Amino acid sequence: MRKSGVVAGSTSPKSLFARHPVLSYEAWLQAAGGRAHASRVRESAKYYASTGRLRHLTRGLYAVVPVDADPKNFVPDPYLVAAALRADAALSHHSALDLLGVARSVFHRYSYLTARPRRTLRLDGREWPALSHPRVLVDKGQTAFGVLTMDRRGTVLRVTGPERTLVDGFFSPRWVGGLEEHVESAAGFEHLDLDVLDTYLRLLDRRVLDAALGWFLEGHPDAGKGSEALMRRLEKRVPKQPVYLGPRARGGRLQRRWNLIVPPHLSLESGFEGGER
Fold this sequence. Notes:
alpha+beta; elongated; 36% helix; Arc Repressor Mutant, subunit A
């Protein structure tokens, strides 16, 4: 009779699967007691995948299939997949907007930050791009700045908080679905921590980001109440020449205070305030 492959002296598979709805080989190995048990862990993984208790997602990654689910049609929680792809994963950009409850649109791309980027996983019409932290944060040893934790189905996720997510979206609009999606989503943030924003902007030290945040705060006073002093500081850091925020397009409007050119429908003059909520 074929054995289940349970590793002697380790956490039982039932207990392990209950704690890890999406389970990486490394986490399994650690629970089993280390690399001395590697062959038995591989045997266990193959066995439970063959029985339909696990779904193999990619090399070294498995989703636990609920007992009442069809293994062939089971789709795991995409955020738990992202968190399991790298031990240091921090859900970011549009993924963070969604987890923080402000995303305006549904995306099927789940980005995360890691010190060891890997090839993008594509599965079930979804994708999980691994992004590097900004080089300046790596150099300063501040890659964890602005990252918070939250619980999701008993799993602790690391997620960029509102302040870092707001700035990162202007830093890399591609990963938030573009400028309009980002501004409309971020308009849902309430009570931003202005000290965290200020510190993060100083760490990144990029004039266009200072200007972008000043422009955003001016147009969304409810998101950054009491931000007048911060905006005055940011106003002194605007780019010396006008800079496009978002794609270059005809009809862009210059926001003189911030020396930014923005799409006309996003300009302060148009009365844009991030859409209704």
